[in-house]
Amino acid sequence: MRRSSEQTKAAILRAARDRFSADGYDRATVRAIAAAADIDPSMVMRYFGSKRELFAKAADLDLKLPDLTTVPRDEVGRALAGHLIDRWEGDDALRILLRTAMTDEDASAKMQKIFAGQLTPLIARFTDDPVDAATRAGLAASQALGLALCRYVIRLPPVAALSREEVVEWVGPTLQRYLAGPR
Questions:
Q1: Residue 16 is assigned to a structural domain of this protein
Q2: Fewer beta carbons below 10 Å: N end or C end of the chain?
Q3: Which domain range does residue 18 map to?
Q4: Domain CATH code at residue 149
Q5: Which pLDDT score is estimated for 99?
Q6: Are 50 and 79 members of one domain?
Q7: DSSP three-state, residue 182
Q8: Are residues 29 and 91 located together in one domain of the fold?
Q9: How far is CA 7 from the centre of its chain?
Q10: CA–CA separation, 179 vs 123, rounded Å?
Q11: What pLDDT, on a 0 to 100 scale, did the predictor assign at position 75?
């Protein structure tokens, strides 16, 4: 049965996410991705141009940050912690990008852009100082990325074993300070 071009692109992206997640950017091959998508490797190049462009599409994501202005101010840290845990656990692309950002400058720049570009405007709602908002966003990102690294990549036993609720209880107060606490 023939697939439409949209179906083929979707199959390639699914296969790419699986391979990048399992193997990382460096070890994932276009041939392995094509085999998993049940297509010829040339089709990957036809639709995405290169492995790097395919990775960029496979790891293209939105943190889908909630509107924290609807949350009581003293609960925004917990709300963000819960949301980020849900995103890390529900989206392979975030974990792929995190693993790859460790060794690839382009992936690192993409991760920086995602976290700075999406967290800073969210945090700016809680402070009048744009420089302060950027600093707070950077610190919140360091907490989120460090947690994700330990929980999903390194799988540090005490951290990986925590329930979602326990992570929110431990990390929420730290994020609270970065979001809306004193300097």
A1: yes
A2: N
A3: 5-58
A4: 1.10.357
A5: 82
A6: no
A7: coil
A8: no
A9: 24
A10: 6
A11: 95
Number of other CB atoms surrounding residue 18 within 10 Å: 18
10-residue block means of pLDDT along the chain (183 residues)? Answer: 88 91 85 96 94 85 88 95 93 80 83 89 86 93 94 94 97 95 86
Instruction: Tell whether 110 and 82 lie within a shared domain.
Output: yes
Tokens of 133: 């908002």
CB 88 within 8 A of CB 94: yes
Q: Would you call 165 helix, strand, or coil by DSSP?
A: helix
140/83 same-domain check: yes
**15 lies in the same domain as 76:** no
Q: Which residue has the tokens 């690192």?
A: 108
Nearest CA-CA partner of 94 in 21, 179, 3: 21
State the sign of the Cα–Cα–Cα–Cα dihedral 60, 144, 65, 22: positive
Residue 158, token pair as written in the block: 């005490």
Tokens 């639709």 appear where?
A: 47
